[in-house]
Every structure is written in structure tokens, then in C-alpha cells.
Automatic annotation (TrEMBL):
This is Lysophospholipid acyltransferase family protein. Keywords: Acyltransferase, Transferase. The keyword Transferase applies. It holds the Pfam family Acyltransferase. GO terms for molecular function: acyltransferase activity. The keyword Lyase does not apply. Residues 34-153 form the Phospholipid/glycerol acyltransferase domain. It comes from Amycolatopsis plumensis.
Amino acid sequence: MIALLVRFVLGPLVRAVYRPEVHGVENVPLSGPVLLAANHRAALDTGVITFATPRQVKFLGKAEYFAGKGLKGKALAAFLGGLGYVPVERGNAQAGLAALEAARKVLDAGGVFAIYPEGTRSLDGRLHRGHTGVAALALATGAKVVPVALTGTENLQPKGAKIPRLAKIAITFGKPLDFSRYEGQDYAPAIRRSVTDEVMYAILDISGQEYVDTYHKRPSEGAA
């Protein structure tokens, strides 16, 4: 019920208020497993992707967000679930594997999962080297990878702003990438690196960002 309210009530309301420019939405396959690989400019990117994509999208979310007690905690958990968040524990050695497994379950069921290959928000506006988790998922599940470029979302909630502001934002969906030619080679590090780089260059092509071939350092807690 919450998911339906988010999709058919909150979604249209948000689009009417913020009027985002959406390009290439026809590039998102309407059936089968799809991996949305996006650049990451702001904390609100997840909401923008959710409200712009024609299918329900799943994302990873901190398990602690779902562990709140009382009515408020339950309401937050229900809302996050409606937005498409999948709870995953973080901060331990098995966190990365748990995240990939949660994403794989969504894709194996024929769903849509969104991932930020950079691993964290870009604080300098540039597109940074991608981590190979996006390749591992695409190769293991056979999902089509749709590159996604977000523009202007960093202006929605600048540092210090408690509520989102009106800002010109755009989301562009690129042509889907098919990596079936690498079937059976999903554990080869060189193949994973090659696939990841191809995905990142596809994002670069539609985002127009400057590319940096180094990983972005994860910002500390409370950073913008």
C-alpha cells in the first residue's frame, strides 16, 4: 500500500512541484532485470530516480533506518520500503557481500535495482572511477545496464538546508548496455574492470562531467 501511495500519489505531486526534465525514459526496459547505474550528486538522488523511472526501483538502505521503535520508527520503515529501499547491514567485513546479494535477489526476480558505481556522492562535481560491483551484478544476473545521469540535484538541498529547495534538475537515461557476450566470465577481475569502465564511460557520455580515473573518498558522517 505504501509503495502504491509513493508511486501514484507522492510521485506525481513531486513531479508537478519540481518539474524535472526527464530524457530517454524509453531506454528503460519495461520487463526483465534492469540495473540502473547512476552518477551520484546528492542525497536526494534516490528520490529523483524513484519518481522518474517507469518501474519500481530498489536501492540499498542502512538497516538501522528500519530498526526504529514505536509508531515513528515503524512509519519511517514503511515509508523507506515504499520508496524502494532494501535494508542491509553496514560497517562489517561481510557488508559488501550482503549488499551484492540483496541486489542480486531483486535482479534474479526480474526487478529493477539502482546502484551508484562511484560508491559515494561526488563532492567535487566530477565523475570518479567506478567500483566493480556494478559489473559483478550485471554479469551474474544477465541484467541490462542502463546508464543514468543526474544533473542539478546537488542544488536541491544545499548544506544547512533542512528541506529541499526548488531547483532545475534533469535525469537522463542512456541506451541499455548488454554484457551477455561475457557470459560465464563473471569472476574474472579483468572482465569486471572492463565492464565497469564501459558503464562509467556511458554515464560520462550523457552527464558531460569531467572524468577522474581514481576512486572518490567516502565523505565523513555529516559531510555535505
